[in-house]
Fold:
Amino acid sequence: MEIEVPPNWNEDEHRSYTPADTDREMQYRTYLHESGDLRLKVAPASLDGEDHPGYTLTTTSYPGLDFSVTETVRTVLTFERCGKIARRFMELFSASYDGPGSLEDAVEYAHERTCEHR
Structure:
């Protein structure tokens, strides 16, 4: 499934693979905001050390830098659902983001509206 991304986001990386212990194909995708300040990752939960099935959406602020911060937004059962949440996160982030000084506020805004507690 392709995730249609908002105009100021780009797919950074994508892979499909079949783990050795199953015949189900898994997917992994990352998206980068045009500023380069935020990366989203939609990946199997097991890649992040989780002990349950499904996919996890994570954010990384300032990817590649020593002070980068990675946070989990949501874990859901299917790639398709995680992709929809990722798109919603991108839209909310983009609506709130106004440059590097507001990165944390925009991430918090989008995170609060897409996290598991809602």
Q: What stands out?
A: The chain is about 25% helix and 35% strand. The longest helix spans residues 79-96. The CA atoms of residues 9 and 33 lie 5 Å apart.
